Amino acid sequence: MTEPGIASSTGSQFTSDLRRRNVQRTEGPSLVHDDTKKVEKEMHLEPDSILPVLDRWEPLIVPILLTALSIFTRMYRIGRSNIVTWDEAHFGKFGSHYLKREFYFDVHPPLGKMLVGLSGLLAGYNGSFEFKSGEKYPDDVNYTFMRAFNAAFGVVTLAKHLMARVANLRGTDVGKDSPLEIAIGSRVTLKNMGYGGGLLHSHIQTYPEGSTQQQVTCYHHKDANNDWFIYPNRHEPDYDPHAPLRFISDGDLIRLIHGQTGRNLHSHAIPAPITKSQHEVSCYGNITIGDDKDHWAIEVVDDVASKDRSKIRTLTTAFRLRHPVLGCYLRAGNVNLPQWGFKQIETTCVKENKLSDVYTHWNIESHFNDRLPPGDPGSYKSPFLKDFIHLNVAMMTSNNALVPDPDKQDDLASKFWQWPILNVGLRMCSWDDNTIKYYLLGNPLVYWGSTFSLGIFGLLIIWYLVRWQRGYRELSQADIDHIHYSGLYPAIGWILHYLPFVIMARVTYVHHYYPALYYAILTFGFCIDWLTQKLNNKFRWVLYACLYTTITGMFMYFRVIVFGIEGPSQEWSHLNWRSGWRI
Question: Where is this region: Disordered (predicted)?
């Protein structure tokens, strides 16, 4: 029976404080400081035991060993395959854009692609190779150095982000040689100013229902189908390229004529294809054929560079386009059309007059007019923070637009639920017998062990919460802190990095799980450490040795998929442990 005021090892007390929480506890005089315990524990080990030595030098030995292994696994035979493999087709191309000083848009943050460009620069690459998937590298491209340079960043860890610089728009056509003020007869591209907005776009394809007229969409990629000519309305004289220039301003009534097809931007009282509560927008007629439904009134919202609204300016003026017949506003609200619309953004005419609706705001992104001089680049400045938010939302929107084509079978794509259980792998290149083949597959023990540990950790938390609720106090503050920092935070990190792919509409692949996997591995390590902390020290070392040996053995067993499969893949069919693996 336990003395009053002193907690037993089970948490039970045979006093009036039974099953009460927050019971004051008196520390017994026999408690020993943790460091003293550790010293005594080491003193009881055999004098000739190597365990204390390993324990003392572990913080130095383990990082050096793991770094060496990391270098080996990343660098060994890295130049063996001489063809463009997997994402080299994308990121090599991105690096070429940097080397050629060309601006481009992509859904990924820029640092990794800038490093690809730097690797090419250091390797003497000039940016001319197209990096087509499966294509053989030319002799003048030192692809081995470029691969090794980028692989090295998987080895080192940067402790601090020392410097960040804002990239400018050097190399882009945005604002380049664009006249500042817009005139009748100008050729322009119109950018929707909503978060993730695209360029006003049309193409020869027609709507499958509704008016069946030419489609009008918003599109994030630049091509000639984004060009529009600004023309007078039908109640004014026809445009004369030799007449004096007439600049457009707030309140003007204009027509927008599609540059490639010559049709007018048009709207009518027909429901939009997706958002049925709004009007359809189409292209109709031509320069001479049409009606008042081809007219659009300009309503200036803001100008970040000037308070003068008498003229519309490239990039800086935000305006709305109101349809005078229907009283609606041109809008692109990031609703994707079906496959018949090429997954582009639905463009409609919305009835509600909400000045705060940024998806009805537009600006002129590019402006071409031979009769006007180029504008001063300093006139196009805009707030950095606003541009930063727009860019990141545009990346997110484009990322979500990468949805799988339901009419095509994508053997490389996978679902989120398949990753934690290692249900599938990924072929990273052609599976031809004459090709060096690579297969993306995780270490089975690491994957399955880390996934299992997430469930174990959840049960541990429930166990301790229930016992705390019932008045048990077996955890010290140091134990609680250890659970928080070594167990709970990695588990939360796994959730935060895994959950987005559960709700994401875009096509997903095996490697999308890797950020979450690292957090699961940390949780795996915590669970092993926590569940074995009360075991004999020698037994723990044996257990750890078994785990390390098994994980290393797994790697050696599957090493051929890492360093390259040569010859017929049928020779390695014994590696297909699961039906979803296609080695």
Answer: 1-38
Cα–Cα distance for residue pair 260/225, rounded to 1 Å: 6
Scored b (16 or more CB within 10 A) or e, 285-301 reads: beeeebeebbbbbbbbb
5: region left, alpha or beta (phi > 0 left; psi from -120 to 50 alpha): left
Which region, left, alpha or beta, applies to residue 290 given φ > 0 means left and ψ of -120 to 50 means alpha?
left
At 27 the three-state DSSP class reads coil
Tally the C-alpha atoms within 13 A of residue 242's C-alpha that lie toward its C-beta: 0
Radius of gyration of the chain (CA): 32
State pTM to two decimals. 0.55
Residues 296/321, Cβ–Cβ less than 8 Å: yes
3-class DSSP assignment, residue 52: helix
Interatomic CA distance for residues 218 and 353, integer angstroms: 21
CA distance 458 to 420: 16
Give which of 308, 360, 309, 303 is closest to 330, Cα–Cα.
360
Domains and CATH numbers, the chain: 59-172 (no CATH), 187-400 (2.80.10.50), 406-583 (no CATH)
Task: DSSP letter for 333, please.
Answer: E
CA distance linking residue 10 with residue 534, whole number of Å: 15
Alpha-carbon gap, residue 381 to 482, rounded angstroms: 50
- Tell me how far apart the terminal alpha carbons of the chain are, to the nearest angstrom: 63
Query: Rounded distance, CA 268 to CA 326, Å?
Result: 7
Q: What are φ and ψ of residue 286, in 5° steps?
A: -155, -160
Q: Per-residue pLDDT tens, the chain, 583 aa: give them.
A: 444 343 333 333 434 444 444 444 444 434 344 444 444 444 444 445 676 777 788 778 888 888 888 889 999 999 999 999 988 888 888 888 888 888 777 777 788 888 999 999 999 998 889 899 889 999 889 999 999 998 988 777 543 333 333 334 444 555 556 888 999 999 999 999 887 788 999 999 999 999 999 999 999 888 899 999 999 999 999 899 899 999 999 999 999 999 999 999 999 999 999 999 999 999 999 988 999 999 999 999 988 877 777 789 998 899 999 999 999 999 998 788 999 998 899 999 999 999 989 999 999 999 999 999 887 666 666 677 777 777 777 677 666 666 655 555 567 889 999 999 999 999 999 898 889 999 999 999 999 999 999 999 999 999 999 999 998 888 999 999 999 999 999 999 999 999 988 887 778 899 999 999 999 999 999 999 999 998 888 888 899 999 999 999 999 999 999 999 998 989 999 999 998 899 8
Angle between helical axes of 143-152 and 111-122 (0-180°, round to 10): 140
What one-character-per-residue DSSP string does 156-218 give? ---S----------TT--TTTT--SB-BTT-EEEEEE-STT--EEEEEEEE-SSTT--EEEEE
Tokens coding 143? 């692809």
Give the whole-angstrom CA distance, residue 150 versus residue 74.
10
Q: Give the rounded distance of the alpha carbon of 555 from its chain centre.
A: 29
Residue 223 CB contacts under 8 Å (≥ 6 apart), including other chains: none
